[in-house]
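Protein in question filed below.

…
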Amino acid sequence: MTTQQIGPWYKQPWLWFILAPLIATVLYSTVYITASIVTNDGVVLDEYTKKAKAFHADNSSIEAARTMGLYGDLKLDQLTGDVVVKLKSSNGNLLPSQLELVIGHPSRASLDILVSLRELQPGYYAGSLDKTLKGRKFLIIQPEGKAWQLRLEVEPPYDEQIFKLGSE
């Protein structure tokens, strides 16, 4: 009979065969947990606040626009990048000299586009869009202070349409 000399535990191949998947699992889970904590998914376009297990949308700015009697038309020109807004108030409220147009992506805030609109003449606003729009979008027109908002969900084609904002 011959005696085999057994090496130290860390030189045994079956030990590493069994431990390798366990060590890999710990490493992968550490990487994924770190990535999920560090990365930011962004906020969805609507201003939602979590209350218990239900969600509540804050529509106070939309109601403010409805109270002011705001309505109008929005036209996008994809070729030139021009954005033209015609805005009116049925109650005779004074309109601001500048507006913001937020072209929102339905699920990723990092893909939202902000367009500054300046008043050319009373009720007529213009701005410039530097990106081509694809897919469904949310259009939000608001003053710089965000006192009110006009919202609309739109789908392509964007060039052949005049989008109605609010209600007369």
